[in-house]
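re: that chain from earlier
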Amino acid sequence: MSRVVHFELTSDDPEKSASFFQKVFDWKITKEEGPQEYWLVDTGEEEEPGIIGGLFRPTDVFTGTVNTIAVPDIDAYIEKVKQHGGEIVIEKNAIPRVGYSAYAKDTGGTLFGIHEEDPQAK
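^ sequence. v structure.
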């Protein structure tokens, strides 16, 4: 069974939203270095239930909250999505030293991510 392992929130003003979530929930939110404006959201201790996430500005594809599901083989799951009538909206891409991700829509139009962990990803 595959589980939700990551969430992403969009905001027109990520810095303001980061401050809000830090104050309300005591989340640790840090801006990442890189070509895209992206904040990592740490929601608690690893020993506690929960997941981590991200925060960024909306795009043509990303306009709300997106949940990402861990899979053992991203290529196989991309094919499963297609076989069952889903649509891949952002093709597989590497996140260096983290793994591979892709984004899809189900047959009802719900956007979600799939992620294969691989520390060797380049």
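The chain has two domains: 1-62, 71-122.
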